[in-house]
Amino acid sequence: MVLFSSFDSHCHLAQNFSEEHISALLSSNPYLHCLSVSTTLEDIQITQILSQKYHQQVFPAYGLHPWFLPNDMHQSEILIEQLNTVLRKEHSDMTAIGEIGLDFHPRISVNHDVQIYVFQQQLAFAAEYELPVSIHAVKSHPEVIKQLKAFPQVKGVIHGFYGSSELALSYTRLGFKLGVGPALFRNPEHNKLVQTVKSLHPEFFFYETDYPNTEILGIHSPADVLHVMQKVAELRNEPLESLHTLYRQQIGTLFHVKI
Ligand SMILES: [Zn+2]
Predict the structure, then answer these.
(1) Residue 1 lies in a domain
(2) How many angstroms separate the alpha carbon of residue 246 from the centre of ligand 1?
(3) 174 belongs to a structural domain
(4) 39 alpha carbon to ligand 1 midpoint, in Å?
(5) Full residue range of the structural domain in which residue 249 is found
(6) Chain segment 23-53, per-residue pLDDT in tens
(7) In angstroms, what is the span from residue 11 Cα to ligand 1's centroid?
(8) How far is C-alpha 230 from the chain's CA centre?
(9) Band (3; pLDDT cuts 50, 70, 90)
(10) pTM, rounded to two decimals
């Protein structure tokens, strides 16, 4: 059911890439729009092709995700140079820089100094090219906040936000939005995000699926971003239409995208 246009503010169309699949997805949902974020240089190339082909529905974000960085500073510097070559050429056709950030979960073996260096460089690109960012922050909030404070002109979205209202406020005070996504459907009994979604003003919410990484949570397409919005409307006891109107304004302001 698509009553009006929707916008998935964080998904990975380049992953699981099959031209047929993407074409079927977008043509069967003509009112669906996606910010398609990248994780590697290879991903950027595919995202670029998709955003050119489906330019009315796919908005590109280019960036290096912390999970896929080399564990070596010198190689990371080379990677950053290669990214900058792409950004210098493409920045006027891009919607955002992402997915970038810090992941200090013990299962991620990438050295923290490398992660911080690459994150700082990409925030500096966001400042230079005047682009918003889509941020991955796992077990790293104090360091992410510290880095964001060094770039006060950079704004964006904390993707896949899962945390308390206090944490949410420390981001919104920096001018950041919270990416509300499938985490809302996790552990209905003790879900920190549910309280946050109920207590904060909805002007701070951007809606996302993180497709295709969230099939386990019942998300089978970026079009399911509407389920996320419906859930928020239900939790807040607010009409979906008013959330949608507010969201459209916010997307226009941050991403300069009109839907
Ligand atoms: Zn993602």
Answers:
(1) no
(2) 23
(3) yes
(4) 8
(5) 6-255
(6) 999 999 999 999 999 999 999 999 999 999 9
(7) 6
(8) 19
(9) low
(10) 0.95
Q: Is residue 142 domain-resident? A: yes
Residue-wise pLDDT tens digits, 154-173: 999 999 999 999 999 999 99
Quick check: helix, strand or coil at residue 69? coil
Rounded to whole angstroms, the Cα distance separating 18 from 46 reads: 10
Task: Kindly give the distance from the C-alpha atom of residue 160 to the centroid of ligand 1, in angstroms, as a whole number.
Answer: 8
| 60-69, 101-110, 185-194: the lowest-pLDDT one | 185-194
Q: How far is the CA of 12 from the centre of ligand 1 (A)?
A: 6
The rounded Å distance from CA 115 to ligand 1 centre is 16
Q: Give the chain's domain count.
A: 1
Contacts of 126 (CB under 8 A, 6+ apart): 97, 132, 133, 151, 154, 156
**What is the spatial distance between Cα 60 and Cα 164, in angstroms, rounded to a whole number?**
30
Residue 235 has pLDDT above 70, yes or no: yes
Q: Is residue 227 part of a domain?
A: yes
How far does residue 100's CA lie from ligand 1's centre (Å)?
9
Query: What CATH number does the domain containing 134 carry?
Result: 3.20.20.140
Cα(99) to centroid(ligand 1), Å? 6
